Amino acid sequence: MLLNVFSVRYFAVRSAIIPFCAAIDLFGVTPASAEPAKYEIKMTLGYLGISVGKFTNRIDVDGDRYAIRGDARTNAIVSIVAKTDARFDASGKIAGRRAIPDSHTLSYAQRKKQGNLRLAFASGNVVNAVSTPKVKYKKGSIPVTQNHLRGVLDPVSSLVFPVAVNEVGNGPAICNRTVPVFDGKNRMDLKFIYKSTSKAKVKGFSGPTFTCSVRYEPVAGMRMHKKNIKFMKSNRNMEVTLARLGETNVYALFGFRVKTQRGTATGNAYKFAKR
To the nearest whole number, what is the mean pLDDT of the chain? Predict the structure, then answer.
């Protein structure tokens, strides 16, 4: 879920983080710049209007390759936010408007719980998934099949939004896409829809940003009758904001806003700079 995507076992907690699939370059394009782009993005995490933690994301784009690593930390400032420390990374290939992951790892600690996840991909298909503690599905969950693991993105690789060279700066082209995601347990589709263009200025960045609304569609791994699943499926108060990584044709997360059953979670970049 987008809630999982921006919550804290991945961005500071549990389950997921967002977009894709692939096998061929549909557009036959290369990155807009041959120069490698190395960026560090720092965000404040908020909940119920209170600052609850920080998120750091380091993205490298070199030709048609990407690598992402980062960490997220939250503090138990409000009772429903647990103190969490999460570290993650992912790598893969960029082909047209697609990110094709090779690998994803996650480690996290939350209260007395600790865990690790390792995903391996081949041509965008999950070929190995190892989780500690072992993933367990509750009775009534929709089974995750091999077909569900074809042409998917891990949550971290979903932070990469490539576009064709001639689509740089085109809001609908940047946003409009449906992203299949597997987070190690659940399989979901996230539909991004262009909403608006704004201007922003933070450390290392000054320029246009693009906001996309997000719709969540559960696919497998979860119990469809559960109240939280129904809530997220009907949720119309989810959005992400994206910004361009230098002179490349790749956009990355600049901010997000997600309404949950208990309040609104937010993330806002205060640094988006070259390293």
Answer: 87
Say if CB 219 and CB 187 are below 8 A apart. yes
CA distance 229 to 218: 7
Helix (H) or strand (E) holding 4: helix 2-5
Rounded Cα gap, residues 160 and 195, in angstroms: 18
β-pairing, 37-47 with 50-62? antiparallel
CB burial of 33-71 (b: ≥16 within 10 Å; e: otherwise) equals beeebbbbbbbebbbeeeebbbbebbbbbeebebbbbbb
Cis before 133? omega within 30: yes
- pLDDT over threshold 60, residue 62: yes
Judge contact between 265 and 34, C-beta under 8 A.
no
